[in-house]
Amino acid sequence: MTLQRFTILALLMLLANLHTVAQKPLATFPTRGFCIAAPKAANVDAFVKFINEELAPRQVNVLILRVDFNYQFEQHPELRDSAALSKADVKKLVKASKDHGIRLIPQINLLGHQSWAGTVYNLLRVYPQFDETPHVKMPAKYAWPNADGLYCKSYCPLHPDVHAVVFSMMDEICDAFESTAFHAGMDEVFYLGDDKCPRCGGRDKAELYAGEVRTLRDHLHEKNRELWIWGDRLLEGKITGLGMWEASHNNTHRAIDLIPKDVMICDWHYERPDKTAVIFANKGFKVATCPWRNTTVGAAQVADMAAFRRDATPEVKENYQGIIQTVWSDAESFLKGYYAKKDDAKANAENTPWNCFRTLFAK
């Protein structure tokens, strides 16, 4: 082969490579994630099939399962959901993930999201003394907005007994999932530093939030595990116009400068491709952008992440970790929609989490 022909061939191969990267930038990201509620015990085998046949061929390498109380805790059996996952169920999920090099990360919502609508979840139901706002009673019929500003209950991060329970749950779930990381949620915390709380009242909310992040992170760090959290409470919501859901209206945003830089940030925006990953990356955090069901927004977020990585300085580039597709339903409903087993028109709608997933994660 002449030098000229070799040079032309090499150039063509390089162009083909660049075309592939341009067409599928997500494939080049360090983190290619999927986040969903852990399946119920009866549907573990169906979800293992989904891991084998759908996640693995798409090179998904991080699977976050929102477990919460859907596990047969041995140290605190009083916190189990009914028909919760057994250790044998979890090991099926662990094996399927390991077989395909997928990092499996369990999540339990900590601090906030201790209730939903009119239901108090297991931690505060069993241990009501941990409630940050015991004076706020659960309504017979939930509506938003409401006079109490009730979205979800929180536990008091300064209660002297709360972390003994929380740490036990974290350790047991991480051991069961053989995980090197734990996702603590920590999103949409509206109740924090309540004036009527005898421990938290009058304290700086940013310091309270940062203190809980540090407490959880330090415990995990002792066991060589990472802490992952949603990023919304670390963003300012009023001046930026991001609002009280995707960012903070109660001054927790200053905690971004008070927490360790090895906390992994999952930066979610579902209706607009807000470019807040830049804030986290330039602060020294590793960050992944998290779409949900809007395919146009999700595609823009993939393109943005590719551009961030391309244009960043060498010192910051690897802070832009990638994309994590989120699903905010139970696993069973998602699989029905994904495999078009739903009878309603939603199954074939463009803006569904399964269509967003298919659009962003090509096989």
Automatic annotation (TrEMBL):
Catalysed reaction(s) here are:
Hydrolysis of terminal non-reducing N-acetyl-D-hexosamine residues in N-acetyl-beta-D-hexosaminides
Q: What is this protein called?
A: beta-N-acetylhexosaminidase
Asked if Ligase is a keyword of the record, the answer is no
Q: What keyword terms does UniProt attach to this protein?
A: Hydrolase, Signal
InterPro entries given in the database record: Beta_hexosaminidase_sua/sub, GH, Glyco_hydro_20_cat
In what residue span(s) does the Glycoside hydrolase family 20 catalytic domain sit?
79-292
Under the heading Pfam families, the entry gives: Glyco_hydro_20
Family from the record: Belongs to the glycosyl hydrolase 20 family.
The UniProt record lists the EC number as 3.2.1.52
